[in-house]
UniProtKB/TrEMBL annotation:
Annotated family: Belongs to the D-isomer specific 2-hydroxyacid dehydrogenase family.
Protein name, as recorded: D-glycerate dehydrogenase
Family annotation (Pfam families): 2-Hacid_dh, 2-Hacid_dh_C
Protein source organism: Roseicella aquatilis
SUPFAM superfamilies named in the record: Formate/glycerate dehydrogenase catalytic domain-like, NAD(P)-binding Rossmann-fold domains
Length: 322
């Protein structure tokens, strides 16, 4: 008789995560990223006790009555939970978890890649080489910006923002930041606090967003915000696409008010605005900040750790507060 906990892995996961799920649980492993309706059906059909969720499993309050009474925990292998109604799920008696720490270093690495690539015109350089580079370039041609020694503004000085600041110090950058509250001096590590976004924007050569979505921040980078940035500044976003009004960003890039942008997140994914791809001064990546072997494995393993803990009657390791 199989008395292992019944777990639904409702998205594709790395091989190491799938292997562990199959070994430790009575696991239903999906070969694609399920949506909410599919996940609810599978949970009911198999009497599921824990779900390893994903961004397409957009569980709302309306879905909760259809979930089986056996379900006890929904584990998100990413930091964000804005794809589901956490408050409703917790009120329904479910434990919701996420992975707030394991993405920090890789997201900071990618943010800095975007900073360097945007400043140094990596899109132009890559295009020229892929097209076969047969034209010589002289001293006035293909000039980027030197990131070293510039002023970096960070919006959202949480774990990832602080990790980006740490990398910036290696490039002799001056770091300014805006946060909901000022950090203790030990966490600031020499960064300068700026009390409002409006005051921060004109002082930055490079601006990098590290806020979660929601909480009144959606659309914060609008026409007025971009207009307040320095002429020739660089804009980077590895946080949430919803933070940016993309029409305003495209206008600022086309006009030359912004020198360049580096983007990993978009308002619509994967159907992002193709006008961004047509701009030579934009360096784009397809929402891959966590896409390393080490981090994706760690994300999935932490989700399984949370499921195992809850189903064994222990507290979740990284619960989400409602």
């Amino acid at each position: 008789m199989n008395d292992r906990p019944k777990v639904l892995v409702a998205r594709r996961v790395p091989a190491a995560v799938a292997e562990r799920a199959a070994r430790e649980f009575d696991a239903v492993l999906s070969d694609h990223d399920m949506d909410a309706a599919e996940a609810v059906r599978a949970a009911r059909e198999h009497g599921i006790q824990g779900i390893l969720s994903g961004p397409k499993v957009r569980l709302t309050a309306a879905h909760l009555p259809d979930l089986p009474a056996s379900l006890r925990v929904i584990a998100n292998p990413s930091a964000g939970t804005d794809h589901m109604d956490v408050r409703a799920a917790v009120a329904h008696g479910l434990v919701v978890t996420h992975a707030p720490d394991v993405l920090t270093e890789c997201t900071a690495d990618l943010a800095f890649l975007l900073i360097l690539a945007a400043c140094r015109r990596a899109s132009d350089y890559a295009r020229i080489m892929r097209e076969g580079w047969r034209k010589p370039y002289g001293m006035p041609d293909l000039l980027g910006l030197r990131p070293s020694g510039r002023t970096l503004g960070i919006v959202g000085m949480g774990r990832i923002g602080r990790a980006v600041a740490q990398r910036a110090r290696g490039f002799d950058m001056r770091v300014l930041y805006h946060n909901r509250t000022r950090l203790p001096p030990a966490l600031e590590a020499g960064a300068e606090y700026v009390g409002s976004l409006e005051a921060l924007l004109p002082r930055c050569d490079i601006l990098s967003l590290h806020l979660p979505g929601g909480a009144g921040a959606d659309g914060m980078m609008d026409r007025a915000a971009f207009a307040r940035m320095k002429l020739g500044a660089v804009f980077v976003n590895t946080a949430r696409g919803s933070l940016v009004e993309e029409e305003a960003l495209i206008e600022a890039l086309r006009s030359g008010h912004l020198f360049a942008a580096g983007l990993d997140v978009y308002r619509r994914e994967p159907e992002f605005d193709l006008r961004l791809a047509a701009l030579p001064n934009v360096f784009l990546t397809p929402h891959v900040a966590s896409a390393t072997v080490e981090t994706r494995d760690a994300m999935g393993m932490l989700a399984l750790d949370n499921i195992a803990a809850v189903l064994a009657g222990r507290p979740a390791l990284t619960p989400v507060a409602a």
